[in-house]
Structure formats: C-alpha cells, structure tokens
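Chain A, query sequence.
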Amino acid sequence: MASTKQREAARKNVKKAQAAARDQHTLQNLPKSTRSALGREANAVRRGDAPSRRELEQQARQLDIKGRSKMGKDELKRAVAQAKRGS
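Chain A, predicted structure.
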C-alpha cells in the first residue's frame, strides 16, 4: 500500500507530465499527413469498422500469439491475421 507521501508524489508527477504534454503540443508537431491518418484510424475504431488495440490483444491471447504484449497495434493486426490464415 502506498503511503500518503508516495501518493502525493505520484499525483504531482502526473500533473507535471500532463502540463509538459500540453506545453509541447506533441500532436501538433507531427506532420499533417500523420495527424490525418491518426484521426481516420481513431474514427474507424469509434464507428466499429476497425478493432481497438484491446480487442486485437484479446484475439491474440485467444490465438496464443507469443510476444503480443510488446506489439504495437499494427503488429497485432498482422499477427492476428496471419494466425487466422494459418489455422
């Protein structure tokens, strides 16, 4: 169980990280094409046209794909598709 001092330090760290992300405008610094692609992908997930990372990881778990926790979304998509074709 975390002490009060540890919880306060964690809360402070989170606030600092959020402020830094706001200050750096991380997404604004990406190229326009990348921002557009991220937006299209997010909209597809919201509409239900594309699976979320969590859904892909669940499918990978069911298919017993090794190294799934370290994979990104695109890698999971490829691995799940390949495992489904192979079985």
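The chain has a mean pLDDT of 88. Residues 4-24 form the longest helix (21 residues).
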